[in-house]
Amino acid sequence: MTEAETYTAHLVDDAGTQTREIEAIDGLPQKSFVLPTEIDGTVIDVVWELDPTSDDNTYRRLSGDGYGEGGVTEA
Fold first, then answer.
1. Residue 11: burial class (beta carbons within 10 Å; 0-12, 13-18, 19+)
2. How far apart (Å, rounded) are the C-alpha atoms in residues 69 and 75?
3. How far apart are CA 19 and CA 48, in angstroms?
4. For position 30, what pLDDT does the model report?
5. d(CA 8, CA 20)
6. Spans of biased composition, class Gly residues (predicted)?
7. pLDDT above 90 covers what percent of the chain?
8. How many CB atoms lie under 10 A from the CB of residue 6?
9. In the predicted model, is pLDDT for residue 11 greater than 80?
10. Measured in whole angstroms, how far is the alpha carbon of residue 4 from the centre of its chain?
């Protein structure tokens, strides 16, 4: 079994930028992925989508349970 190819994803939202190593699919960046994220002590599933205008694998937060696009929404 060979080791999976990975790449650095830049996750950008209202809180700033973080990086993660993500597994490539057939040598290409994933179009989107779900990342469990802790916000205010609660873990939620956040969907990150590849920015098609980016040259450096930048992902933007698409949604999260109870949270709006790109940032936290007020309840």
1. buried
2. 14
3. 12
4. 95
5. 6
6. 65-75
7. 60
8. 11
9. yes
10. 19
- Which tokens go with 10? 């830049």
CA distance 65 to 57: 24
- What is the mean pLDDT of the segment spanning 57-66? 78
**Separation between Cα atoms, residue 22 and residue 28, nearest integer Å:** 11
**pTM of the entire structure?**
0.74
Encoded tokens for 68 = 């709006």
Q: How many CB atoms lie within 10 A of CB 34?
A: 13
DSSP one-letter string for 10-71: EEEETTEEEEEEEE-BTTB--SEEEEEEEETTEEEEEEEEE-TT-SS-EEEEEEETTBBTTB
